[in-house]
Amino acid sequence: MRILRVVTFLVLFTLVTGHENLNSHMFPRPLIIEYPEPHHHQLKDEVQLQCTSWRFAVETNNLGPWKTIPEECGNYVRQYIEGGAYKMDIDRVSDEAGAYAKSRDLGADGKDVWVFDVDETLLSNLPYYSDHGHGLEVFDSVEFEKWVEKGMAPAIGSSLKLYQDVLSLGFKVFLLTGRGERHRGITVENLMNAGFRDWHKLILRGSDDHGKTATTFKSERRNEMVEEGFRILGNSGDQWSDLLGSSASNRSFKLPNPMYYIP
Amino acid sequence: MRILRVVTFLVLFTLVTGHENLNSHMFPRPLIIEYPEPHHHQLKDEVQLQCTSWRFAVETNNLGPWKTIPEECGNYVRQYIEGGAYKMDIDRVSDEAGAYAKSRDLGADGKDVWVFDVDETLLSNLPYYSDHGHGLEVFDSVEFEKWVEKGMAPAIGSSLKLYQDVLSLGFKVFLLTGRGERHRGITVENLMNAGFRDWHKLILRGSDDHGKTATTFKSERRNEMVEEGFRILGNSGDQWSDLLGSSASNRSFKLPNPMYYIP
């Protein structure tokens, strides 16, 4: 606020004391756009602090199930997503995962596995969520499935790079998604168009999986992989329900997602 | 940066065009203290963003083992700890844990357990770490053990409240710490002086546990609890090695710790 007062003072002072010398086209205008940005405001700072703390609680899985983001964090989440911090976090996850993947010596039997979730891990639904308040609105499965059926979700850039890297290293890639079997066709098409190829298996929720939590569904599928002799060395997902449970991966990589929660 | 340029421009402009009208005692001085604060500086903003991203990677367990915090994040971590955000995060964890604890119906057999880690979970070593760069220095076990033997680590306020709450609710409390048996005496004394009472068992690292990771050591001890018929409903710790592994708790609560990493 002090800087604002100084600018205002200097402007007035200049006008009062030096207006006869002013050459109007030299005056920096419009001054209004030079005001400190809203997030420097004290109240905004408090919201910023609270919402960062909330986001930590989300990302560390300290919160119980939640249906929408806190209303006061709407702008915060949008700013996080659109302002570059989300991308920075995602890129870092892929970098760490890639370094770990390279550090592993794989067996000659082709049984070393990397598991990827799909939504908000390989494919981004930001075009959908930016139209729906980035999590401010209660999840509407009918609306979301219309979006899924368009098959237009773009790849998350650094995830695509990681995907290609682990394939090159010799990992078998399993895609394990909470999407239902009825979306298999469009999901394959979307993934292929976004640049994802050569997965070993794409596992979607079948009719038997109805009513199971994602943690249970995904644990059961990982159990099957382990029973078939696969070794799960890496697992990338934006939900803790992608990563926790039985037959957990040797290393898990949690992508950020402050927009929704899947138990 | 633009605001700085505008101020500079206005100052120069005022000096150049209006100096004959200037009454020097009216000039706002010293102008240097009115500059935007360091954290509004673009470079600082970038460091802030990078270090927040690093902290997320730490708290979500995405990083491999690390020995010191990134040098460029030294001020960031100090500011996080001392500026109130750390306390806000800790308080939120305890609130969430407390709400979960109250939501559980406990059995009549007294077998429902809450596990607490000690350092940076119940007791705070901030007096030590603030003297050692908040993680900028490589961990020095000799120095740290001298501090431990003083028995002067204060309680973390909201953890003490959670501790008392879960006891009142009827949980059995197990303290499971990486501290060695040789520190048992002073650890008990420190805990008691800080207000912690009535734990069911305090488990420290014995001579057999030498060389084990914390994840292994703590998993083994939790396995024993489960074998004895205890149900681990809650677990609070500042390290993922407190929380992951076998016989994991029904719900785990990750306290923040951007200062050090224990595998």
From TrEMBL, chains A, B:
Residues 1-18 form the signal peptide. The keyword Cytoplasm does not apply. It holds the Pfam family Acid_phosphat_B. GO terms for molecular function: acid phosphatase activity. This is Acid phosphatase 1-like. Keywords: Glycoprotein, Signal. Belongs to the APS1/VSP family. It comes from the Eukaryota. The keyword Signal applies.
